[in-house]
Amino acid sequence: MTTFAWIVASSLAMSAIALVGVVTLLLRPQTLARLLLPLVAFAAGTLLGGAFLHLLPAALAEAGATPGVLVWLLAGFVAFFAIEQFLQWRHCRREPAEARRPMTYLVLIGDGLHNFLDGLAIAGAFIADVRLGIGAWLAAAAHEVPQELGDFSVLVHGGWPKARALAFNLLSGLTFLLGGLLTYVASARVDVAFLLPFAAGNFIYIAASDLIPEVRRHAGARASIVHLAALIGGIALLYALRLVLED
């Protein structure tokens, strides 16, 4: 497959993950609640593994140990912090009685923007090396599963019909493809290697700011052991993938 084909195929596959929300219709709420937090912890592990074992080593190999790599790493971190702060500010300005339905649109806008930036970054990884792109894609995909389950639940809770919620979740997922195509076109004119540390900053922010705090809010000895094992499992999977792809 060509690099372009990898970008398009991976983008469509990532967009299709939005349909995972249908699982919430098949499982009992108690079963879904038991599965969701271990999935979140596993996703945090894959994102950390993708950042520290795939993207950052590739960025350092490409550019060397220069301050520019760290600047773009911080830029990726700060960009997602800024997006979340803006969306949270917009949501908090509304009165509680009127917040629920507008919140659903903010969820879609935030998810679409997030997917667009992910598409930019992961396409950059594919352009640098197809094997690197595969690792970055798997890390991002592991995060998308619990996120899309949560987004679908928010839309339905906000009064959306289930079919419409799935359709709009899928549309927001297609912004990943838009970001990927934009990166591919831009790569013919500019060096897109900066997207590797940018993506690493993105992954680290999501894992450290969104996912791990969510898991930590649900304490308990047994749950903590399960969540730690899931986190380590996510990191181990990305480490194993690195070893396999290097062979």
Can you describe what's shown?
With 247 residues, this protein is mostly helical. It has one domain (37-246). It has 10 helices and no strands. The chain has helices spanning 3-16, 23-26, 29-63, 67-92, 96-128, 130-157, 162-173, 175-186, 195-216, 221-246. Helix 1 runs parallel beside helix 6 and helix 4 runs antiparallel to helix 5 (96-128). The protein starts with a helix and ends with a helix. The model is unreliable at 93-100 (pLDDT under 50).
The coarse silhouette is globular
Please identify the oligomeric state.
single chain
**Biggest sheet statistics:** none
User: What is the straight-line distance between the termini?
Assistant: 19 Å
Count the DSSP helices.
10
What fraction, in percent, of the residue positions are helical?
A: over 70%
Unreliable spans are 93-100
The Rg value, from CA coordinates, equals 18 Å
Strand-residue proportion: under 5%
Tell me the series of helices and strands, N- to C-terminal: HHHHHHHHHH
Total individual domains = 1
Protein structure class: mainly alpha
